[in-house]
Amino acid sequence: MNMDVANLAAGLFRRLLVTVYPPRCVLCGAAGMDDMDICEHCYRKLPWLESACTQCALPLAGHSGDRLKCGRCLQKTPAFDNSLSLFSYEQGVIRLIHQLKFNEKLVCARLLGGMLTEAIKQHESALPDCILPVPLYRTRLRQRGFNQSIELARPVARAFRLPLEIQSVIRRRDTHSQTGLNKKQRRHNIRGAFKTVRSLDYDHVAILDDVVTTTSTVNELARLIKRAGVGRVDVWSIARAK
Fold this sequence. Notes:
The chain is α/β, with parallel strands linked by helices. The protein contains nine helices and six strands; from the N terminus they run H-H-H-E-H-H-E-H-H-E-H-E-E-H-E.
């Protein structure tokens, strides 16, 4: 099928779907805005990340400038090269992420993935060769039934026509929950948790995760895939903890 015809058909289908099933806000139930499953009021109340470190996306005080790095990244450079995150990890977005991860509301993945897509269009000048969602360990994947990072990555990959790399890297052991651990404990907990099982024939990869807390997980993954030959690693996430 011709690509223009396919795009036209997809657009007509989306408009028909919106007419039959108009979007509703996943937070309050009001009518959605701009074909999104969130209303304007809840959208504006989300904790948008306005100023952040360009390398790790750590929230910075006020409007600290566009190309600043935080003290942590200046002191010790992470394995990844650049980060983009939508929100500070606060109420509102916490609820959306928990609805996705623990209540199986995949509509939240479509909503958040779409928001991330728009941010990438605005802020990223060079797209990666592929998107690598952070892998889950097999027992966690069986329990949950899906990997939230893959579900968040699907709208982004579709929008930019990028491949989703979900075969080359696995989580080879089930790490303890990172919740409640300090940064040193998190680094120790995640060390050696990932393994490449297939060659990564990419120069530029974007790792995608739902929440970046201390960067221990994404840094370990970035270190691994750089050792496998990847030249540049970006980190895309929905939320970044302070």
